[in-house]
Amino acid sequence: MNKRLNLLVFSGEYDKALAALILANGAREMGMEVTIFFAFWGLLVIRKEGYEEDIHETLYQKAFKSMTPKCAEDLNISNMNFLGAGQKMLKHMMKESGKPMLKDFLDGARHKNVKFYACKLSQEVMGFSEEELIDEAITMEVYDYLKDALESDIQLFI
Amino acid sequence: MNKRLNLLVFSGEYDKALAALILANGAREMGMEVTIFFAFWGLLVIRKEGYEEDIHETLYQKAFKSMTPKCAEDLNISNMNFLGAGQKMLKHMMKESGKPMLKDFLDGARHKNVKFYACKLSQEVMGFSEEELIDEAITMEVYDYLKDALESDIQLFI
Amino acid sequence: MNKRLNLLVFSGEYDKALAALILANGAREMGMEVTIFFAFWGLLVIRKEGYEEDIHETLYQKAFKSMTPKCAEDLNISNMNFLGAGQKMLKHMMKESGKPMLKDFLDGARHKNVKFYACKLSQEVMGFSEEELIDEAITMEVYDYLKDALESDIQLFI
């Protein structure tokens, strides 16, 4: 199928990232091309697990990074999070109904050659170097996002 | 008009559901075809009022259902909810300016033959059978959503 | 470039408004036509600074207006707001990395002839007259939004 899906993932929440990655996997399985542009909180979805903190970051960037989830599975949910209890409950319900976790959908998207773009401006504000994000992520500007979106058949802001 | 609007309603909040249903009603009045795919929290928007709880659900699903709004009019708002006070205030302001309630826009969409799709994966995780949702809702998979979205002129993620 | 971007800004948060206006500025720089339809909380993004409150508003509308941010720079952020500390932290990080503020991107969009539409229904509910919004904002209905969206190449709900 000669069709394209373009997602702008602005949110850094477990449930919204799950929605984005389920769409991305489904579209690839149907033969569509898929690009995801991660911006702002969305960068937290593609943070590389276990990465050592950078020494070039400012005090605020250091504080920001230490206060935010370290990897996809640690993200909070957008509703009823209750300091993390809601996220654990959602994960339990997903396991009980035999569903993969966010990490699995993320790995699936990586193996299925979904294109991962990371917003340059957001990286600079938050102090995330390309090395701190998953290997597939390529730093891109808003113009690159717009060009890709213009060539796509579906564009969503998540 | 031979045009189509496709909405993915992920949010289960009063104000966002209102936005989605105002768009859906407006588009139908203009002669457009409209499909709404309800996923995750969005399922709460189309919960059938007064439905008795299912005995096949797990403990977590039972807890989840008892903690979440029972019908569209009970949904919280996404900002300034203040344990429900904000939602009541919004409803007051809507009434004072002569606007219909969410329930009315939902009924309008049902009467105007908007297509209601309910996400299969979300139903399985949350334990919602098709009988617990409004009669118009048909269980669909992410592939069905993508096919419909590909044939639409406007696609929004709400 | 004969292409169009259409944004429906429903959110009234600093970070989401920033995303919308960065997209709008970027698209104009690439020669695209840009329309932004501000609805619900989105009206708070284009509130005119220092405007005196209207005497025709109801008690609820008066309360609502006094409880909500008075201009774009006062908006909260959608995550980790911590009663405003998170927003201040974000602004610090933006300044440290040499980025313009939301106000600058808003002014940029105004100078670059982005079309500003304000949702009529939302204005009536919240009690915002056209005079209380930035001069560029024109009151429009949901039908106008849909017509513009149908003629656009990218449509996003933010």
Automatic annotation (TrEMBL), chains A, B, C:
* Stored Pfam families: DrsE_2 (PF13686)
Which taxonomic lineage is given here? Bacteria, Bacillati, Bacillota, Tissierellia, Tissierellales
Source organism superkingdom:
Bacteria
The molecule here is called DsrE/DsrF/DrsH-like family protein
Coiled-coil blocks: none
InterPro entries, per the entry: DsrE2-like (IPR032836), DsrEFH-like (IPR027396)
